[in-house]
């Protein structure tokens, strides 16, 4: 390995909104290469992993390591680090990559954080507590399935418990509870991922980038705002009307004896019941989900479905109260 350690170049984009004309000006900053010359017997530099810098995280451990190496082993080297990255958009973070270097002699190693190209992220953690806290961000799909199943079942459980307490019902309805648990797993856990993450982000190309942008950039992102409006409309007027409600009614029929008679029997019985309640069901649905979707589709991508489940918990209790009692 030669004494010539490495060459790093960071390309970044900066969008500035002028106060007078409120115009967006793109400024591309190209920082001078970081050239480190050191003696082989004193210091060995190894590019170990890619590091994406988030809006709030500063890689203090890496910078301290470089500073220590600069002071101890390579005085006079040119080491430049960008301290303030608050003006960068999220897509700029995704495009920007820097090398984390290891200093074996110092016993210091920089920990990497993955580039967030979409939903999940390979977030570093230390210990069981951090592993648990970072699990939703590292495994968004599994988090979604678990939240969907538990949330939907628990919402019905609460409604049934309140009904028993108010003497509206004296027995716990196990088949009804099973309907909501299975519906939460199949539709809210699996099907919704396909629609809300795969389909909507394909139909709305700016969805991921807009969702991950800081709030002040969202206010000036007209293309992203248009994609936000498209997602809200597709969710409420297409997916809810033609997928969500039919799936709920058919699932309810299947778990109330339809398995013995076949899927077609459940469809023939479930769809007419939905058509009968179609107007009321969708009006109630829109009253909650139209405003909620604006917030849900604006939050960072890895939080989209968890935030949706938070609102959906309240909605599922309303659904259980409205239609859960019709399980038989």
TrEMBL record:
Q: Where are the transmembrane segments?
A: 178-208
Entry-linked InterPro entries: Mpv17_PMP22
Tell me if Glycoprotein is a UniProt keyword of this record: no
What is its subcellular localisation? Membrane
| Membrane topology, as annotated | Multi-pass membrane protein
User: Which superkingdom, per the lineage?
Assistant: Eukaryota
Gene Ontology cellular component list:
cytoplasm; membrane
Q: Does the keyword Repressor apply?
A: no
The UniProt keywords, alphabetically, are: Membrane, Transmembrane, Transmembrane helix
Predominant cellular place of this UniProt entry's protein: membrane
- Family, similarity comment: Belongs to the peroxisomal membrane protein PXMP2/4 family.
| Alphabetical list of PANTHER family matching this protein | ACT DOMAIN-CONTAINING PROTEIN, PEROXISOMAL MEMBRANE PROTEIN 2, PXMP2 MPV17
What name is this protein filed under? Uncharacterized protein
